[in-house]
Amino acid sequence: MSLNSEQRAATIREFQENMSRLGLTAERIGRDFGVSVSRVEQIITLKSGVLEYPWIIRAYLLSRAETQGVELTPFMALRGNPHDYWFLDGDFIDRGEID
Fold it and tell me: What is the percentage of the chain residues whose pLDDT exceeds 70?
């Protein structure tokens, strides 16, 4: 399953907007996951090659938003429960680990 160019652009923009709303940088997210800034940037620009990674970052942002009481820009393509998508490994996403 892949996103069309409009969905890709919107998802990248949604990641950027939500990181900004939360005061987060790729560097900070990288530290939290124990990965490089470039790895985080690959993920949030949808170039990581691992479908689950954007969902892991999405879950991280949603959790931070709940903790901080911040309303996020809704993710239009990355929406709902990832366990409902046959092509995603929900258990992998639940582990919340990025290599």
Answer: 99
